[in-house]
Amino acid sequence: MKISVFGCGYLGAVHAACLTHLGHEVVGVDVVQEHVDALARGRAPFYEPGLPEILEEALASGRLTFTTDASAAADARVHFICVGTPQTPGDNAADLQYVNSAIDTLLPMLKPGDVIAGKSTVPVGTAALLADRVAAVQPTAEVVWNPEFLREGLAVQDTLHPDRIVYGMRTSDTAAAAVAVLDEVYAAPLADGTPRIVGDLATAEMVKVAANAFLATKISFINAMSELCDVAGADVTLLADAIGLDKRIGRQFLNAGVGFGGGCLPKDIRAFMSRAAELGVAQELRFLQEVDAVNMRRRVRMVELAREACGGSLTGRRVAVLGAAFKPLSDDIRDSPALSISAQMQLQGALVKVTDPHAIDNARKKWPDLDYVATAEEAVVGAEVVLLLTEWEDYVTLDPAALAGLVEAPYIIDGRNCLDPERWRAAGWRYRAIGRS
Ligand code: UDX
User: Fold this and answer.
1) How far apart are CA 43 and CA 34, in angstroms?
2) Edge to edge, what strands does the sheet with 351-355 contain?
3) Spatial distance between the Cα atoms of 406 and 297, rounded to a whole number of angstroms
4) Which end of the chain, N or C, is less packed with Cβ atoms under 10 Å?
């Protein structure tokens, strides 16, 4: 099937390459010439394991192209909207300008029976407004909301083998045809038994934000427990293991530490609260304010621990930070706890050296004043305290005995509860973590 993908960022680039892998003919449209040129050469403009390989395979098939010329989408049957919906500066609401401009671009080229499949995360009610605009121009074109649940770092796998596929649409004469078209797009994962849920537009929009709100709540729940563990003398890791064995709770997303960041969870819970307030039900989502606050407190707490490790003041003290990305297997530094903690320590006078296997270039652009080095060994030389803030495998498997010889003081603060305390203590380190007194 001929498919267009509007927006070739994390979501769209992966989606375009994976749809080509599934046998379709895809054109990726983006307004940033530099991204389009890089993708057309088989180079992803961001680090995502598995993407270069699938991109290369897709380009070699001759069925995948990238362009800034939107007219290339005119003969596509399905148009996926994969543009970003960032937080509006100075406001909690989502900024919908890119979604609106993608629809503006598409409207004049829509043909009877076309399907516009929205994958971007939007406030509930957005898709209905878009559907009205589309119906006014091309009544037999169908707007379907088809949210995407991919995780950065696992994006290719999540796209090819999703947990579920959701379609939301209006009840109309053309709805069944639109379902059939999308079923053809997703024929391979559906044949693998992926559950498919069909509902209305509002529910489909809400599935995405409700899922992210739940995940954020789970993380902040365990982080709140970690604060209690600290004062009660309990161990949050054991606590998570024990409660996670209850199948109703589950162990995933119960890793306490410096909390969540990235381009989705923080902005999605804020946009969700903002939309709830517009709908007159602000009170119902007020708990998400606390989820956000618990999450932000993790960063403050980590700076406090570093200050304590330095004897009460960070001024002039040498601090090593392992990790800059908001999570491993990604070079994304949006709302990264690691970088906001690093910047705060620097503001308090610390001499901070940050390292990361993939995110240093992005980090330097956003926080140019921090000192970046290529390796963990370089970062820790002469350090009076080491903070592990992103749990890259490279850092989890570091040899504590070898590192002990490089630092000024062997003091490690494990911001992700991912190290073995006994191993580090046996190598002469003082080990601290949140919620593991
Ligand atoms: C998230 C959702 O998981 C995904 O379904 C949605 O499509 C986009 O948003 P992503 O932002 O890639 O994906 O990251 P995710 O793996 O969810 O992690 C988010 C943050 O939570 C990271 O900063 C991670 O370090 C943190 N986290 C995760 C924890 O602090 N503890 C955990 O137990 C799990």
Assistant:
1) 11
2) 371-373, 351-355, 318-322, 385-388, 411-414, 430-433
3) 31
4) C
Burial classification of residue 374, based on how many CB atoms lie within 10 Å of its CB (0-12 exposed, 13-18 middle, 19 or more buried)? exposed
Q: For the domain 214-432, what is the CATH superfamily, name and number?
A: NAD(P)-binding Rossmann-like Domain (3.40.50.720)
Distance 155 CA to ligand 1 centre (A): 12
CA distance 169 to 204: 8
Q: What is the Cα 119 distance to its own chain's centre?
A: 14
152 lines ligand 1 (CB under 6 A): yes
**Ligand 1 pocket test: which of 150, 151, 297, 334 has the largest number of ligand atoms within 8 Å of its C-beta?**
151
List b or e across 310-348, with b for residues whose CB sees 16 or more CB atoms inside 10 angstroms. Answer: beeebeebbbbbbbbbbbbbbbbbbbbbbbbbbbbbbeb
Query: How close is the Cα of 206 to the center of ligand 1, in Å?
Result: 18
HSE of 234, CA atoms in CB hemisphere, 13 A:
15
Tokens standing for residue 27: 């054109």
Phi and psi at 65, nearest 5°, equal: -130, 160
Q: Give the confidence band of 437 by pLDDT, cuts at 50, 70, 90.
A: confident
Strand 78-81 relative to strand 115-118: parallel, antiparallel, unpaired? parallel
User: Is any ligand 1 atom within 6 A of the Cβ of residue 212?
Assistant: yes
Mean pLDDT of 155-182: 96
Task: Indicate the length of the chain as a whole number.
Answer: 437
Cβ neighbours for 414, distance < 8 A, ≥ 6 positions apart: 257, 388, 421, 431, 432, 433, 436
Give the closest residue (by CA) to ligand 1 atom 33.
253
Q: Which helix (H) or strand (E) covers residue 209, if one does? A: helix 201-232
What separation in Å is there between the alpha carbon of 214 and the centre of ligand 1?
Answer: 11
Residue given tokens 């580090």 in the structure block: 424
- Phi, psi (rounded to 5 degrees) for 5: -125, 115
Looking at the annotation, which residues are catalytic? 264
Contact (CB, 8 A) for 167 and 177: no
Distance CA 122, CA 56 (A): 31
* Whether the model pTM is above 0.85: yes
Assign a CATH topology to domain 2-198. Answer: Rossmann fold (3.40.50)
User: Hey, what amino acid is at 317?
Assistant: R
Average pLDDT of every residue of the chain = 97
Q: pLDDT category, 61, cuts 50, 70, 90?
A: very high
Range(s) of the chain covered by CATH 3.40.50.720: 2-198, 214-432
The residue contributing the CA closest to ligand 1 atom 30 is: 259
20, burial (CB in 10 Å: exposed 0-12, middle 13-18, buried 19+) = buried
